[in-house]
Amino acid sequence: MRGVALTRLGVIAAFIALLEALCRFGIVKPLTLVAPSRMVGTLIDLIQAGDVGDDAARTAIEVAGAFVLAILLGVSIGAVIHAIPRLRRAVAPVLVSWYAVPSFVFYPLFIALLGLSEAPLIAIGAFSATPAMVVATISGLDRVPRVLRRVARVHRMGFWDTLRHITLPSALPSLFTGVKLAFAYAFIGVIAGEFILSGGGLGYAIAYAYESFETAKMYALMLLVLGVGVAVNAGLHTWEGRLLRRRQR
Q1: CATH number, residue 82
Q2: How does DSSP assign the chain, residue by residue?
Q3: Distances (CA, A) of 111 to 117, 118, 143
Q4: 193: nearest Cα among 100, 128, 133
Q5: By CB distance 3.0 to 4.6 Å, which of 77, 106, 197, 209 could disulfide with 217?
Q6: Are 14 and 94 in the same domain?
Q7: pLDDT tens profile 176-210
Q8: pTM reported for the whole predicted model
């Protein structure tokens, strides 16, 4: 594992060094791409000046809201679908083709229902992320061995004891995959929504910098978004590994 990690870091470092060289030697024009070192410097300047705090806070609230809503809806809907085979057969094609429908087409509807606020963007993020959690929940419940369910009934285990000792441990790998995908889709949905439809947030700030030809600022904000996404995903991956190791003890 350590060798794989070192190889990954080496590839990333080589890619960054290549971009730095292309920009420093003028092979790539500054209006097209700025050097990674300049991205970092500009981002530090923006943070020190307090120019990204409000936008970052707004995006964080929207992503967190969409993420939590997607998990709650996804687990609930997935459990209901898993419990009713006929319903599962009916909605399976819908789940498969869900991402063929652009979620942004529902933005006017969300505005009409929720008003001009952060709520429509949260709804878009949740709309994008919920199917991944639904599929993961169904897959996780499929992994629960039937014999363990029978044992629970024989021992007259209650709902919460069955959930804690049998259902969750068996479904955990699939559920965590769904959680990671739900975050990714919620994050992408909110950022893209801000980029196209909003008047605030990091997505809007990136779009505004692009339209103003502030290339360095645009790439600095993109670097911030990339860093946050990678950091949260790495945190979820680490948490998943700890839970799985604890489960195997």
Answers
A1: 1.10.3720.10
A2: -HHHHHHHHHHHHHHHHHHHHHHHTTSS-TTT---HHHHHHHHHHHHHHTSSHHHHHHHHHHHHHHHHHHHHHHHHHHHHHHH-HHHHHHHHHHHHTGGGS-GGGGHHHHHHHH-SSSHHHHHHHHHHHHHHHHHHHHHHHHTS-HHHHHHHHHTT--HHHHIIIIIHHHHHHHHHHHHHHHHHHHHHHHHHHHHHH-SSSHHHHHHHHHHTT-HHHHHHHHHHHHHHHHHHHHHHHHHHHHHHHHHH-
A3: 8, 10, 39
A4: 128
A5: 209
A6: no
A7: 888 999 999 999 889 988 887 777 888 899 999 88
A8: 0.83
Name which of 66, 48, 73 is nearest 203 in CA terms: 66
- Domain range for 23 is 1-33
Tell me how many domains the chain contains.
Answer: 2
* 1 has pLDDT over 60: no
